[in-house]
Design brief:
heterodimer; A: 538 residues; Rossmann fold; 24 strands; globular; B: 380 residues; mainly alpha; ABC transporter involved in vitamin B12 uptake, BtuC; 75% helix
C-alpha cells in the first residue's frame, strides 16, 4: 500500500494518484474515505489443531471501499471472514471496527457493530415472503408481540429503492430467481443495519447479466458509505468490482494491491504462486461420428413438471459439446436421464445407434460406456467413509479385475489405487485414507481417475470445476481435452460461461429445458450467449 | 514396533486419555463406566448401598459355574439379534423389526421341530434353515415395502412386530400344534434340540455325574446349548460378508451414501431388500436357537419378550460391528442375569439394571458429550 500515493483530487476527493476508470465506466475509488478504517484486522492467526488456516493476516478496509479477498480453495479467505463475523474465535490478533477494538465472540456482536454477511448458500425460508425473510429474527412488532407486517413491508420497499435492489417485498422466496434471492440476502443484512457487508462468492450462481446488476448494486452501496468485502477466486469480477484486493495463499498474506494497477495474470500468479495459463490449449480437430443422440426428450421433476422439455441434441466423437445455461434450466435432469439416474417421460436417448432410454445406471456405465463426473461430487460422486481405493472401484468392484467368487481381492484393489493415485496426481499419495479427508480438488481428481480409467466412449462432466481452485481447474480441463483428443465424446455442462466457451468445440445453450441455440465456440459471443441463457430471443 | 508407530500415528494416540477419547471403543468404555455410576446414584437415592448392590450383581454372575453358564445362555440370543440390528445399521437401515423376526423364527423353528421327524443333525439344520428363511422373508418384506413404496423401515417393522406376535399367538391356538388349555405349543422333537446332554442329564448316570463333578455338574444344571457357538460363527460371517465380499461392499456403499451407490450402478432397491433379508434371517436364527436350545416350545405372549429390542441396544453399544455385538451381548446378558439377583440380595428393584443400560446407550449415543465432560475436567 505504501507504494501508492494518496492525494486529494479536486473532483473525486481522497484517492490514489490516478483515479481509474474501470469496467463499464464504473468509477470506484471516489467513494472511499481513506481516513475512516471500517475494518482493521491485524496479525490474525487462526489455528485448527495443528493446522494454521490464517497465519498473521492483515486486512484494512476503508469506508466506502470494495475489497476483494482472493485465494485458492482452502487458502483461508472464508476462515478470515468467519472470524470477522464472529463464527470462529481467532487464536490471536486484533480486530478493530471503525477504530474500536472489539471482541467479536458471536455473530450477534458482529451484527450489532454493523457487519453483515451473505453466505454462499443462501439462508432463506423458501415458503416465506421476501419481507418475512428479511425481518426474521428481528421482527418489527406492534404491542403484544404481534408482527407489524405492513410497517416492515414499507421499510423493505424503502431500502430496496434506496440501493436499487429491486425485489417485490410480497413475493415468495421460492418463486424468485437466484439473483433476486441474493438481493433478499443483501437487504436482510442492510435491514439489520450493516455498514460492512461480506459477500461470500457472490457471483457463483449468477448469470452474466445478474453479475452486471450486482456490480451496480455494489456501487450504489459504496456510494452510501458502505464497505464491501467480496470473497472470490474469479479474477474478472475482481477487476470489475473491487478497489483493492488482498491475496491469501495457504493462510499467509501475500499482497494487497490496487486492482486497477494489476492485470488478471498478475493476480492469478500471486494467488497460485506460479504463472497460470488461462487459455486452454487445444488443437483443432475434426469431429467424428455421432456418439450420443437425444431426441425429443421429456423429463419431469419431482412435482411432475417437464423440466427437460422436448430436448434434442447430438454429441459426436472427438468433440467437447458445452451446455451453457443458468442453474435450474434442466441441466441436472438432462444428465440424470442420460445416465439412467432419472426416468425419462418420453423421447429417446441412444448411444451409437442403440437405444439406452431408461436403462439402469449400471448397464449404461458398463455396457454402453458412459462415464459421468457428477455435478455434486459429495452427494453422488464419492462415499466419504470409503477410502480412496474403495472409491476407485465403485463401478467395477464386481469385475474379475477386483473380485473372485464374490470375494474382493484386496491386493488388486490397492495396487489399482496406487497406480491411479500416481497417474492422476491425487494427494496425499495414500490409498487407505477416507475420501472425506481429501481436499475438494483431490476428491475431484479421484472421481476423474475412476471415470477415465473406466475407458468410456462418452464422458459427461457436470460442473466439473465447481469450487476448485485455478490449479485444479487447469487439471480438469486438460483431462477433458485429453479425452476429446483420444476421439471420445465429451459433454460438458457448466454454469460458468467462460469455462464453456474456453473448453468446448461447440456450445449448446439450454433454457427452460430446451436447447435454444447451438454455436461454434470459436465465434461465440459472450453477450449473445448470455442473452440466450436468460431466455432472450435472437 | 513399526506397526505400533503407524497405529499411533493414525489414531494420534498420546496417552490413555487420548485413546479413550479418540475411538468409539474408548467412548463405549467410558459410557459403560458412567452407566454404572448413574446406576449407583439411583441405588443411593433409593436408599440402598450401591457397593452392596454391585457386589450382589458380581456375585450373581461369577460366584458359581452355573451362573456363568446362565450368563452365556442369556447372552446368546442378544448377541444374534444385536448382529441383526448391526447388519442393517451398517447398510443404512434401522431394523426395529428384529423382535418380530425373532418371533417368526421361533415360531417356525418350533413348528418344524415338532411336526417333522428327521435324523438328529439334519433336523437341527432344517429347523434353523426354515426359521431363518421365514424370518428373512419377514425382514425382506419391510425392505421390499421401503424399496417399492418408500415406506420407512422403522414404521413397517414396528407394525410387522405386532403382526408377528399375533401370528405366533394364533399358531399356539392351533389344535395340532398348541397344547389345549396351557397356552403353550407342544415341545419340539429330541432330534431338533441343541442342548448339550439334554437326554443324558436325566438318566441315572447323568444325575450321578452332576452330583459327583462339582464344576461340570454345576454347569450342566443350566440348559447348556450350542447356541453360543452359532453366535460366534454368525458374528464372524457378518464381519466377513461386510468387509470382504462384493455383496458387503455393495451394501456398505448403499448404507453410507445411497446416491453415490446408485450413481455407481449399484441397484439400491435390491440392496435394501437383501440387507433386510439378511438382518431378518439373523434375528430369526436367534429365535430358532432359543427354542431349540432353551425353551423347546413357544408360548402365547401377552407382550413382546424384548429380545429384538435388546438387540438394538446391543448393536448400539457394540458400535454396529460383529465383535462389538458379541462383547456388548455378553455385557447385556450378564447385567440381565446378574441384575436379577439384586432383588434377593439387598431387596433393591431390578429396574436399576434397565436404568444402567439406558444410561450407557445414552452416553454411547453422545460421544461429543463425553468429550466435552473430559475437556472441562482438563480445564480447557
Amino acid at each position: 500500500m505504501d507504494a501508492l500515493a494518496l492525494s486529494r483530487h479536486p473532483l473525486w476527493g481522497w484517492g490514489y494518484s490516478d483515479p481509474t476508470t474501470l469496467f463499464g465506466g464504473v468509477k470506484c475509488l471516489e467513494t472511499i474515505d481513506f481516513f475512516h478504517k471500517a475494518v482493521e484486522m491485524t496479525d490474525m492467526v487462526k489455528k485448527f489443531g495443528d493446522f494454521t488456516a490464517n497465519d498473521k493476516i492483515n486486512l484494512i478496509v476503508h469506508k466506502g471501499e470494495v475489497h476483494a479477498l482472493l485465494g485458492e480453495n482452502g487458502a483461508g479467505k472464508t476462515t478470515l471472514m468467519n472470524v470477522l463475523y464472529g463464527l470462529y474465535k481467532p487464536t490471536s490478533g486484533s480486530v478493530k471496527i471503525n477504530g474500536n477494538l472489539l471482541n467479536i465472540k458471536d455473530p450477534n456482536v458482529a451484527i450489532k457493530n454493523g457487519i453483515g454477511m451473505v453466505h454462499q448458500h443462501f439462508m432463506l425460508v423458501e415458503p416465506f415472503t421476501v419481507t418475512q425473510n428479511i425481518i426474521l429474527g428481528n421482527e418489527t412488532t406492534k404491542s403484544m408481540g404481534i408482527i407489524d407486517l405492513k410497517k416492515a413491508e414499507k421499510q423493505v420497499a424503502e431500502l430496496s429503492k434506496r440501493y436499487g435492489l429491486t425485489v417485490d417485498p410480497n413475493a415468495l422466496v421460492q418463486d424468485l430467481s437466484v439473483g433476486s434471492q441474493q438481493r433478499v440476502e443483501i437487504l436482510k443484512a442492510l435491514y439489520r443495519g450493516a455498514q460492512i457487508l461480506i459477500l461470500d462468492e457472490p457471483t457463483a450462481v449468477l448469470t452474466p447479466q445478474e453479475i452486471q446488476e450486482l456490480a451496480q448494486i455494489i456501487q450504489n452501496l459504496t456510494r452510501e458509505g458502505k464497505s464491501i468485502i467480496i470473497i472470490t477466486h474469479k479474477l474478472k469480477e475482481i477487476k470489475q468490482m473491487a478497489d483493492f484486493c488482498t491475496i491469501i495463499r495457504r493462510g499467509k498474506h501475500i499482497d494487497t494491491v490496487e486492482v486497477a494497477k494489476v492485470t488478471e495474470e498478475d493476480l492469478a500468479s500471486k494467488m497460485v504462486g506460479r504463472d497460470v495459463i488461462f487459455k486452454v490449449a487445444k488443437e483443432k480437430q475434426l469431429r467424428g461420428d455421432k456418439a450420443l443422440e437425444i431426441k425429443n426428450l421429456v423429463v419431469q421433476d419431482a412435482r411432475g413438471l417437464p423440466v427437460v422439455n422436448n430436448l434434442s441434441l447430438e454429441l459426436h466423437k472427438g468433440e467437447i459439446l458445452g451446455i451453457a445455461g443458468i442453474d435450474g434450466n434442466g441441466q441436472k435432469e438432462l444428465i440424470e436421464a442420460v445416465t439412467g439416474l432419472r426416468k425419462v417421460k418420453s423421447g429417446t436417448v441412444s448411444v451409437q445407434g442403440k437405444n439406452i432410454t431408461n436403462l439402469s445406471p449400471g448397464k449404461i456405465i458398463n455396457k454402453h460406456k458412459i462415464s459421468h463426473i457428477p455435478e455434486d461430487r459429495q452427494k453422488r460422486g464419492l462415499i466419504f467413509e470409503f477410502d480412496i481405493a474403495e472409491n476407485l472401484i465403485l463401478e467395477t468392484y464386481f469385475k474379475p479385475a477386483f473380485s473372485k467368487w464374490f470375494t474382493l481381492i484386496k491386493e488388486r484393489i490397492y495396487s489399482n489405487a496406487k497406480d491411479l493415485i500416481h497417474k492422476f496426481d491425487i494427494r496425499p499419495e495414500e490409498s487407505e485414507i477416507p475420501a472425506k479427508a481429501l481436499s475438494g480438488g483431490n476428491q475431484q481428481k479421484m472421481i476423474i481417475a475412476r471415470e477415465v480409467s473406466n475407458e468410456p466412449e462418452i464422458l459427461i462432466a457436470a460442473q466439473p470445476t465447481r469450487g476448485l481452485d485455478v490449479g485444479a481447474i487447469e487439471y480438469v480441463h486438460e483431462a477433458l481435452i485429453n479425452q476429446r483428443n483420444q476421439g471420445k465424446a465429451v459433454l460438458l455442462v457448466s454454469f460458468e460461461l467462460d469455462e464453456v466457451i474456453n473448453v468446448s468445440d461447440r456450445i449448446a445453450v439450454i433454457f427452460e429445458g430446451k436447447i435454444v441455440g447451438i454455436v461454434d465456440a470459436q465465434d461465440a459471443d459472450e453477450k449473445q450467449i448470455g442473452l440466450m441463457m436468460a431466455g432472450g430471443t435472437e | 514396533m513399526k506397526k505400533d508407530a503407524r497405529l499411533k500415528k493414525r489414531f494420534n494416540i498420546r496417552g490413555i486419555k487420548d485413546f479413550l477419547l479418540s475411538g468409539s471403543l474408548g467412548v463405549t468404555l467410558i459410557s459403560v463406566f458412567l452407566g454404572f455410576m448413574v446406576g449407583a446414584i439411583v441405588l443411593l437415592i433409593a436408599g440402598f448401598n450401591p457397593v452392596e448392590g454391585y457386589f450382589a450383581i458380581l456375585k450373581g454372575i461369577f460366584s458359581k459355574p452355573k451362573y456363568m453358564s446362565y450368563v452365556v445362555i442369556y447372552s446368546t440370543p442378544l448377541i444374534i439379534t444385536g448382529l441383526s440390528v448391526a447388519f442393517a445399521m451398517r447398510t443404512g437401515l434401522f431394523n426395529i423389526g428384529a423382535e418380530g423376526q425373532y418371533i417368526v423364527g421361533a415360531m417356525v423353528a418350533a413348528m418344524a421341530g415338532y411336526y417333522f421327524h428327521l435324523p438328529m443333525v439334519l433336523h437341527i439344520i432344517v429347523c434353523i434353515f426354515l426359521a431363518a428363511l421365514a424370518a428373512a422373508a419377514w425382514g425382506g418384506l419391510a425392505g421390499f415395502i421401503k424399496a417399492k413404496f418408500g415406506v420407512h423401515e422403522v414404521i413397517s417393522t414396528i407394525m410387522l412386530n405386532w403382526t408377528a406376535l399375533y401370528l405366533s399367538n394364533w399358531a399356539v391356538t392351533l389344535k395340532s400344534f398348541g397344547k389345549q388349555g396351557t397356552g403353550k405349543s407342544f415341545a419340539i422333537q429330541e432330534t431338533a434340540r441343541i442342548d448339550l446332554f439334554g437326554q443324558w442329564k436325566i438318566t441315572e448316570a447323568g444325575i450321578d455325574f452332576i452330583r459327583s463333578h462339582k464344576v461340570l455338574g454345576d454347569i450342566l444344571k443350566s440348559p447348556v446349548n450350542l447356541g453360543i457357538l452359532a453366535a460366534f460363527l454368525l458374528a464372524f460371517l457378518m464381519w466377513y460378508t461386510l468387509n470382504k465380499t462384493t455383496l458387503g461392499y455393495q451394501l456398505r456403499a448403499v448404507g453410507y451414501n445411497p446416491n453415490a451407490a446408485e450413481y455407481g450402478g449399484i441397484n439400491v432397491n435390491r440392496s435394501i431388500v437383501t440387507s433386510m433379508c439378511i438382518a431378518g434371517g439373523l434375528a430369526g436364527t436367534a429365535g430358532a436357537l432359543q427354542i431349540m436350545g432353551v425353551s423347546h416350545r413357544i408360548a402365547k405372549l401377552a407382550t413382546m419378550e424384548g429380545y429384538g429390542f435388546d438387540g438394538i441396544a446391543v448393536s448400539l453399544i457394540g458400535n454396529n460391528t460383529g465383535i462389538g455385538s458379541v462383547l456388548a451381548g455378553f455385557l447385556f446378558g450378564s447385567l440381565k442375569y446378574g441384575g436379577s439377583k439384586i432383588q434377593d440380595a439387598i431387596d433393591a428393584p431390578t429396574e436399576v439394571i434397565n436404568i444402567m443400560v439406558g444410561t450407557i446407550i445414552l452416553f454411547v449415543a453422545m460421544p461429543k458429550l463425553i468429550k466435552l465432560i473430559f475437556s472441562f475436567k482438563k480445564g480447557k
